[in-house]
Each structure stands twice: as C-alpha cells, then as structure tokens.
C-alpha cells in the first residue's frame, strides 16, 4: 500500500474525479468544523479544501459544457 493510499492529502487533486474530490472536501469541512487543530494545520487543511472546491467546480463546468453541447446539437 502506498503512502497516497494512507493519506488522501498526498493525492494530487488534479487526478481526482468529481465524487472523490467532493467526498474529500466534505471530510475537510467536518475536520475544520470540529476544531482543535493548530493554526498551521488548519490553514493547510483549509488550503486543500479550497483546491478541492476548485476541482469540483472544474468538473461541474465540464459537465455543464457537455450538456450544453448535447442540447445545442439536438436543436438542429
């Protein structure tokens, strides 16, 4: 088992699919809401959460574009 299998934070966010990024983001939010982390750990987790949210938005934008393309193609 690799290190990336043990720690999701080791996985490159650009390699995550929508569901994996969303699930990890939910986990990040839960940890931050619980509190108890020192400032540096909280900031690092928040930064990862921001990157995960951006990745989710990229996936959603791609899906939106595919739907719009499919719909415009069916109008012809």
Topology:
Layout: H1 3-6, H2 18-34, H3 39-74
CATH class term: Mainly Alpha
- Largest sheet at a glance? none
Q: What sort of overall outline do the alpha carbons produce when their principal axes are compared?
A: elongated
Q: SSE order, as H and E?
A: HHH
| β-strand number | 0
Mean pLDDT: 90
Helical region count?
Answer: 3
Category from helices, strands and their pairing: mainly alpha
Short description:
The chain has 3 helices and no strands. It has 76 residues and is mainly α. The chain has helices at residues 3-6, 18-34, 39-74.
Essential attributes:
Helix Hairpins; 75% helix; mainly alpha
Describe the structure.
The protein is elongated and about 55 Å long. The protein has a single domain (16-74), classed as Orthogonal Bundle (Helix Hairpins). Helix content is 75%, strand content 0%. The protein is built from 3 helices and no strands. The mean pLDDT is 90. The protein is mainly alpha-helical and 76 residues long. The chain has helices at residues 3-6, 18-34, 39-74.
């Amino acid at each position: 088992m690799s290190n990336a299998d043990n720690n999701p934070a080791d996985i490159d966010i650009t390699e995550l699919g929508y569901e994996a990024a969303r699930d990890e983001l939910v986990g990040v939010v839960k940890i931050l809401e619980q509190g108890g982390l020192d400032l540096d750990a909280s900031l690092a987790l928040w930064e990862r959460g921001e990157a995960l949210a951006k990745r989710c938005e990229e996936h959603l934008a791609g899906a939106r574009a595919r739907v719009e393309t499919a719909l415009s193609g069916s109008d012809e």
